[in-house]
Write a structure and sequence with these properties.
Length: 482
């Protein structure tokens, strides 16, 4: 080694960083004589490396042909996708070679020590401050440690006996043997499949609907509400979706909601339907406001709800009045309700359980419908559990579907059957006589009328409202909390 100006020379650590390899690899190359002319000593006798010369020596003294067993191919990493099995012993325990053509005796595990010696460290990540990182899985374990056969046998042990794998066991194998992160398999619905089902409604409420329920979600600066129509076998139709902007801690926004819930919806038969049951989420920051609104409207079946994530809990149970307002509160089993809603969004053919969407529905609403997915995760002491996770920030539409279904279930199974047998009510005019639906021109009968919820609807003449009908027909609304 020569003593030269060390201003442009690198330490072994610096050169390892320059090459993207480990300090041990550089030290080994020096010891093996593959790096020689590039080495110099500084005034204190420490070894320094001329990077330009070292790069040439490294390239010249690295036998690519030898490192790939006579093939000029690039060296490859040992990955689990190379592992194959036969009916007897896993071939992967002897040969992780990427293809049958390249398999030679040099690929067998008994040559692992030699293969590891010829290998090189390649950085797979680098931080902003220049620190580099490496990825190394269990297939690289030296002879006498974990063998390839051990890796394969541990993988086979994760099978559940039904053609699949136990998620908890497979997760451990992926983390500890492959040194990879575990990605939970999610169960959800694709938004494009829902967009394909949108359809025009002939009337605001299609003929198959016999019962309406509403659901309200309380946000920090608004209320969001949907109205769902229900038919045979709980086939459903989205009837209306509205937002009421304002502070939920003030009266004005609740007055608007109340007027909306009091409204009538035009049925395809010429009659009208009113909302039968409404559930309002009380789990946010305005719990008292929700109770205050619902308590005096219980005779109209307007109730607060509280969602509870608990496996096995039914969609809805008996109400409780354990609150300061003594309002009837329904506990909703959101896990069961979400499972039901998602399974119905997967149905392709109209019929029992099928969810109809009108052609006025916006892409944002559909995106929110598909905003949660179910995954299975391992929880210490509980084993594998199923959990719903959000895939986007806004999920109000999905929550409202859950609440509207719960509102229907508060009525019981027999109530919907009776509603299906009852005729649709015909709203009376001011004179007290039924208002006949106007006969459309012959040409108009051929084309369906598209109704956007509550936005294009023209108010019909109504009788003078009594005290119980405040907020409509020009009567000044009284404070909603009284």
């Amino acid at each position: 080694m020569n003593k030269v100006d060390t201003q442009t020379l690198l330490t072994q650590n610096a050169y390892a960083k320059h090459r993207g390899c480990s300090h041990a690899a550089v030290a080994k190359a020096i010891k093996a004589g593959r790096l020689a002319r590039c080495l110099h000593r500084d005034d204190k006798g420490r070894v320094r490396i001329d990077a330009a010369v070292a790069d040439k020596e490294w390239a010249a003294n690295t036998n690519e042909m030898k490192r790939t067993n006579g093939s000029a191919k690039e060296s490859e990493s040992l990955v689990h996708t190379s592992v194959t099995t036969t009916e007897s012993l896993p071939v992967g325990s002897h040969s992780p070679a990427p293809s049958a053509e390249s398999r030679t005796a040099g690929d067998e595990e008994r040559f692992k020590t030699e293969m590891l010696a010829r290998g090189e460290w390649r950085a797979t990540a680098e931080s902003q401050n220049g620190t580099i990182g490496f990825h190394l899985n269990g297939l690289y374990s030296p002879l006498g440690w974990k063998s390839w056969e051990d890796c394969v046998q541990e993988f086979l042990a994760t099978k559940d006996g039904q053609g699949g794998h136990d998620p908890a066991k497979l997760k451990v194998w992926v983390n500890t043997v492959l040194a990879e992160t575990w990605e939970e398999k999610a169960e959800g619905v694709d938004a494009d499949s829902l967009k394909a089902r949108v359809e025009p409604y002939v009337a605001e409420v299609p003929a198959g609907v016999r019962l309406l329920t509403a659901a309200v979600d309380v946000q920090g600066d608004r209320l969001e509400a949907v109205v769902k129509g229900w038919g045979a076998g709980e086939e459903s139709w989205l009837i209306a979706y509205s937002q009421f902007h304002g502070d939920p801690g003030a009266d004005e926004v609740w007055n608007e909601l109340d007027e909306f819930l009091l409204g009538s919806f035009e049925h395809e038969s010429g009659g009208t339907l009113k909302i039968d049951t409404t559930l309002i989420d009380s789990g946010g920051h305005h719990t008292d406001n929700v109770y205050k609104f619902c308590k005096p409207r219980q005779n109209r079946r307007v109730f607060p709800l509280k969602g509870m994530q608990q496996p096995g809990r039914p969609i809805v149970g008996n109400p409780t009045q354990n609150n300061s307002y003594r309002a009837k509160l329904f506990i909703v089993g959101v896990d069961a309700a979400k499972d039901t809603v998602v399974s119905r969004m997967r149905l392709k053919v109209p019929g029992p359980g099928y969810m109809h969407l009108p052609d006025w529905v916006e892409d944002e609403y559909i995106a929110q419908l598909t905003s949660e997915k179910a995954i299975r995760k391992y929880v210490r002491g509980r084993g594998a559990v199923r959990e719903w996770i959000k895939t986007r920030e806004r999920i109000e539409a999905f929550d409202l579907e859950v609440y509207a279904l719960a509102a229907l279930r508060t009525r019981g199974a027999n109530y919907l059957r009776k509603a299906l047998q009852a005729p649709v009510a015909v709203e009376k005019s001011i004179t007290g006589h039924p208002t006949a639906a106007p006969e459309p021109p012959a040409e108009a009968k051929q084309e369906p009328t598209h109704h956007h919820p509550r936005k294009q609807k023209v108010d019909q003449p109504r009788p003078v409202a009594k005290k119980s009908s405040w907020g409509r027909a020009g009567i000044r609304p009284r404070p909603w909390g009284r």
